[in-house]
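yo, Aldo/keto reductase is done. seq:
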Amino acid sequence: MRYNHFKNADADISALTVGTWGIAGANSAGVTWGNVDTEESIAAIRQMIDNGVNMVDTAPIYGDGHSETVVGQALKDGYREKVYLATKFGSYISHYTGKSVRDNKYNSVEREIDESLARLQTDYIDFYIMHWPDENTPIEETMAVCNMLKKKGKIRYIGMSNSSKELIQEAQKYAKIDVIQPPFSIVNQSERELMEWAETQGIGTMTYGSLGGGILTGAIRELPKPDPKDMRQVFYPFFKEPVFSNVMELLKTLDKIAEAHNVPVAQVSINWSTQKSFVGTALTGVNTPAQADENCSAFEWQLNNEEIALIDSEIDRLNIG
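structure:
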């Protein structure tokens, strides 16, 4: 396993983070990643940790708290002490409307932290991350509650996800921002400039969508049938034309590189991301111990400059990312 230093947090974090959105099951709106097995999920999380991963990321909105509950179970038996734990606040699915709600108000966050701590069966959260901006709540108010929770020892570090540079800069007036969590992968480089700026600020980066909802593993080779309940199709644009066909064309290049190294395609995708200096840690979902071993084995080798250049040229040619 490789490790990177998060300057503001003064923490050495593994280049991979256990992402747990995919193990959440269905939320109250019925949107799902598919069938999940809790015992298998727990085993997969522990296998990632046994392989040197020291960050686990979750959120209360994932399966209406189910993901946090599973993570809490996985971190029993001494595993909590081996990891930095990240969860989020301010985003949930309304049981009344079935729609996403964003609420970063002081009182709401103060209530949420205790609910998350209970589900996670822990006394503190290492990285507490604002999941989405809330246009109805001043960032000063949100940072105030984070600072209060930090003073009380309920959280150690403050993070922001899905936030613009301007909002992060505004938040920095009121609190130390230790980490951001933007999307980043071969097929999505929309926040690259933000991440490069964060690196200059000592802000660690936790990238989500690192395997493009699974499309960068090479396991998906045919366009899925439209399904409004499939989280991949709801959240990611890669499972619709014409992007899907372009990604399939890109996979031909990734296939060749994977074959040359005798590794799975997912490892090519992981290395392309994590070899960037501005990527602190890449979130990858994992459903089985075998997947955990496969993902972590990516760090037994590296892409060379020519291979990275070849991938980048194909990204440009196909207008991906």
